[in-house]
Amino acid sequence: MRQLLRTPAGLAGTILVALMVILAIAGPPIWGAGAERIDSSAILQGASAAHPLGTDNLGRDILSRVLVAGRLSLTLALLATIIGAAAGTVLGALPSVLPRAAARLLTGAVNALVAFPGLLLAMFTAVIAGLGARGAVLGIGAAVVPGFARLTQTLAASVTRADYVSAARMLGVSRWRVMTRHIIPNIAEPLILNVTQALGAALLGLAGMSFLGLGVQPPSFDWGRLLFDGFSRIYTTPAVALGPAVAVALAGIGFNLLGDTLANAASRRSAPGGKAVRPPVPDAGGLGEPDPDAALEVRDLTVSFPGGVTPVRGLSLTIAPGEIVGLVGESGSGKSLTASAIGGLVPYPGEVSVGRLRLCGADLGELSAPERRKLLGTSLAMVFQDPMASLNPALRVGGQLAEVATVHQGASRAEAWTRALDRLGHVRIPEPGKRARQHPHELSGGMRQRVVIAMGLMGAPRLIIADEPTTALDVTVQRQILRLLREVTDETGAATLFISHDIAVVGELCHRVVVMYAGRVVEELPVEELATGAAHPYTRALVASLPDMETDRSLPLASIPGRQPSPADVTEGCAFAARCALATARCAERPPLAEYGKAHRVACWEA
Question: Which residue, of 5, 211, 216, 588, is most buried by count of CB atoms within 10 Å of its CB?
Fold first, then answer.
């Protein structure tokens, strides 16, 4: 309200809209009798003291009729806007949840409607629906639909890529529920703001329809109908047309000014938010026998994008129950895409191919889509770097946790809520009942990260993937989250893949370390050997770049010269050769990941 009253435009819009609302409420009771009173002695009079805007062909006072017509004019405009906004929102949001072919068809239909003149669309609909107020409302509502649909499509396109939407799809949530619960609520604010502006446009459109004789019919009357009745006298007694014209103009200006001011205020407040991934296809040739004891077994995982971009190349990884494996490397090495591929979350147009992908003893490539969703939804917990991207900002925390139990475990709402409170308490969130009723933005960063971990524990996870979960947290909270991950792993016996670029954190938390560079694993070793027993030059460079208490602060910090090649520029040889002091001519050939010692493998010719 302060923002509305702070600017001249906002103040003017607020006053005009308030006056119109008051007029719609008070007009008929106060001036209704005068508007219907027929006076044969005062037919077709011009402006006078008794009739400031003159009279019509039955001697009725035009000023009274203008004041009374405000209710019907605003009511019809509101109905038309609601119809257009509701239909347009659904039409615009559907492509974000439909299959690609259907989404493309619907998007094309919306584009065609946007290109069609709104007034012609309104007139065409009104003629089909029948003359009168109903036809005019449906016509203007139809004209409002394309604009809302286009706006919704644009807004929904950004929300559909959020992690919480991807997680809902992986959980098997229905398309309708994804749209109504996860997409539309998070784009509601700009849509609601657009309603105010659309209301002004609908008011003008309905007045135009009535003026053309396609809208309100006698004996009913709105501002457009009064303008139609007085237009034939505009050259002799212009005051009869002036009243309804001014009313329409003021109402339209008021709603547009109010909408613009609200939109500007919202933009300042919020400034600094496909194709299905191909399921893994098993290919057991040359991969050896599956490990029956592994919680996660990945063999020959590759993630590629059009244009020859391959961020992950032939990765193999095994994690035992209760084991924490650290996946480290510079930004762009393929760590997060590896996690996304395991969870089935690689975005379109990325494609995943894998020789073997087994979770909890089940080969995901041999499962049907519903079976794969159920297994991933109950046995896999993913903790992302930014919890606000994983939590739906429009929903309360407790409801988001409870959804996991209701969708995958068939729990009742009461049972799911009880388990959600138990899980929040389990990750040491104080007052879980109070926190469960709050929205994510009401919690601190560390508490939001705990909520995400609690969400993963709603089922019985056998694998936890933590993708840089402490990067955005301060050191104190970071240590608390690391301790919590360790406790959860020890208690549940789940395998944990901990992804980080901070090799010090990995050394503190993990049992084993896998080092990636340019999409490939270059070394795998026990964490005890990380500081002194690393064999690959890249791993040793990472360890050397980590300052400690004995680092000479008078010297520049150690760093790795050069830069990591982009996924499109990786050659068949050793990708680290250009930055390696030990590189030889043999490095033009890619070294295999070979045994180097007990539980230690390295891909380097010089190791």
Answer: 216
